[in-house]
Amino acid sequence: MASTRPPALPSSSTQHSGAGGTVQLTSVRKCYGDFVAVDNLSLSIKPGRIYGLLGPNGAGKTSTLRMIIGIIVPDSGQISVFGETLKLAHKDRFGYLPEERGLYKKMKVLEHLLLLAQLKGLSSHEALKRARSWCERFELSAWTGKKVEELSKGMQQKVQFIGAVLHDPELIVMDEPFSGLDPASTVVLKDVLLELAKSGKTILLSTHGMDQAEKLCHSICLVNHGRAVLEGDLSQIKAGYGKCNVQIKYDGDARFLQESRLVQSFNDYGNYVEVRLAPGADTQELLKLASAGARLSKFEVMEPSLEEIFIDAVSKPAVSKPAVSQPTVKSNA
Amino acid sequence: MRNIWLIIRREYLERVRTRSFLILTLLVPGIMTVVMMLPAKLATMGEKTQRLVVVTSTPQFGEMVRQRFLSASTDTDEDEEESPDTNAAKKKPDEEYSIDVDANPTEAERAVLRDKVTSQAIDGYLWLSDEAIASGKVTWASRNMAGFGERSHLSAILNRILQYQRLSANGLNTDQAERLLKPVKVEAVRLERGRESKGGGGGKFLEVVVMVMLLYMAVLLYGISVMRSVLEEKNSRILEVLLSSATSTELMTGKLLGVGAVGLTQILVWVVIAGVFALPAMAMQPSFSELQIPLGVLLAFAIFFLLGYLLYSTMYATIGAITTTEQEGQQLQFFVVIPLVLSVFMLAPVVRSPDAPLVVWLSMVPFFAPVLMYARIVVQTPPLWQIALCLALLIATIAGLLVLCARIYRIGILIYGKRPNLPEILKWVKYAKA
Q: Is A105 in contact with B236 (Cβ distance < 8 A)?
């Protein structure tokens, strides 16, 4: 399941710990009128890592990304990049991919790429060279003379991505980079991202696709209602949750799932059931109970998936949080 | 600076390369030519040789009228000022008129002539019986009343002849009569810093009208284009990408200058086309050859056109930044068009009394300045400090509006679907300072 995940980079995490990292957010807050989009968010992104900002729709991901690249300004809190307070001069060191397509429809692909690269400070000669090679890589060479509006959505997405990385930025910020891509293009993009990370670029991406993040990201930050629910290395987060999940493929009596002493909750995926063990439950006992009534073809103890961690993390504070956060919203309005 | 230049280039090329730009650039001179040629063409179309009959009891007198009428073109000093309509009639009189003298002023003859006019055998007759001359009321009868120009022309000729006749009847010879009757011509001279320059008020007014028309066209054509492109950027999120590379002020400045360059290009093309095709034709018209535009006015034209155009485009851009759809934007367009229309209304009083205090201060108002201050410069150069103050105010307004617009534009990316109210906009402007 987690086979495509790149090897964790323990060396870099120790190297840069405490150095602040490529991006450092400290108690950042952003409101739109009465609505608190980002609330007291702190996070740290280390160089050469793929960092995932995860959360449901409206959690404040896009606002956070926009603040990091300086499109919008936080109401309070600090943002520093490359070890300095965020300022205009940093713009050329970022690459940004917005959530929806942001391209001039009437412009030709190659010209558009040149414009974006030149705005980032590249010479037209260099921009042309790089644009050509990137287009080749994404199989867009035949389309460089076409207008953007003649391209399919997925192809436009590729153009947009090339525009974001053409100037070889140190920090690549991407809002939902995989939305709208077909499986083949998803693989190409994923490979490119891994390659960029390996060459030392820092990548920050937002997504609500937990699978994608689980495969790709070294570190994550789970946000919900503008607050960080969980932040850190993915491997550490997972280890913290322990091996308390069991995947069972069975045929027959399902009564063992109702045993509340052992099973805290379960999720039926049709082909198999994923069971979350109750605290202190013994997997051997569950195996015995299950095999007594049903025929098992699979029984695997495993780490929880990111999705489960997310649901778990969101559901627990979600009960208490609104009660706490809503009065602060009103008092600040 | 590099970013502004890149944006200017993009905005410029995007517009200049479109088919609509090409069509418009070529079509407008074509339409203008048709519009200018058509009235003249229509006027000459109906003209054929006019057959007239002069009825008088004294044939010599009839002959004099005939001579005068046919040679009227050389008789320039007489009624030039009187009515420009006669110009056409005077041009080639021999070709257009054939005049017979009828020495039989009887009622019977009159009836015959009437029938001839009706049956189109002749086009009209001039009844110059002795009684008619004595009473001072002669009759010009023709099928249509359209020959108004001819009538005043005729009356001028007749008056002249009668004056000669009466003078010679009192014993003066032709020379003496000529001297006595020499008309005085009023020549309009414009005094500017001690120097005199010729040219009537008509030409001056034309300069102002041309300015207003060009400004109006450019604003309507390209102002809306600015608004539309601001809206497009907001709605397609390209703005986010651009903002991650450049500041909103750079983007706005580049956009306006780029679109401004497009407008100037178009007008330049028109001017060149006009220069190549129209000027030789115009040079033949006396009223145009008199129109010598001094260099200072040309300079003022360039400056005020450009600034006016930038001002109004910035207003359009601001509308684009506030609204979210084109329909909404078109409703607010009103605020741009109104000052332009108002300044056209104020044009006449300004030209009439360019020094009146109210006029002076109105011409300082940035939204009216491109038309009114320019008009004042054309009519009578205002004191230098007034021009300087006016330009300073205009430039400051453009810059202020640009910054304001850039701020709203930047915040605008966060709102979709709802037009902000005034307090909200003010809040953004304050907020976006950072």
A: yes
Do residues A233 and A8 make contact, with C-beta atoms less than 8 angstroms apart? yes
Choosing among B241, B247, B249, B255, which should be mutated to test the A contact, i.e. which has the most A CBs within 10 A? B241
Q: Are A38 and A28 in contact (CB under 8 A)?
A: yes
Kindly report, residue by residue over B64-121, the tens digit of the pLDDT: 777 777 765 444 444 444 444 444 444 444 446 777 888 777 888 888 888 888 887 7
Question: Rounded to whole angstroms, how far apart are CA atoms A178 and A203?
Answer: 14
| pLDDT tens digit sequence for B246-264 | 888 888 889 888 988 888 8
Dihedral of CA atoms B405, B406, B407, B411 in degrees, nearest 10, equals 100
Between CA A68 and CA A47 the distance in angstroms is: 15
Q: Where are the domains of chain B?
A: 49-185, 199-431
The stretches in chain B having pLDDT less than 50 are: 73-95, 146, 199-201, 289, 416-417, 434
What's the CATH number for B49-185? 3.40.190
> Do the Cβ atoms of A71 and B413 come within 8 Å?
yes
ipTM above 0.95, yes or no: no
Token match 């023709």: residue? B142
Residue A237's alpha-carbon distances to A10, A275, A310, B54, B318, in angstroms, are 14, 19, 11, 116, 49
Domains annotated for chain A, with CATH where assigned, are 10-239 (3.40.50.300), 243-302 (3.30.70)
Mutation pick from A68, A71, A81, A171 vs chain B, by most beta carbons of B within 10 Å, is A71
Residue among B181, B201, B226, B213 at smallest CA distance from B77: B181
CA distance B242 to A119: 8
CB contact under 8 A, A119 and B414: no
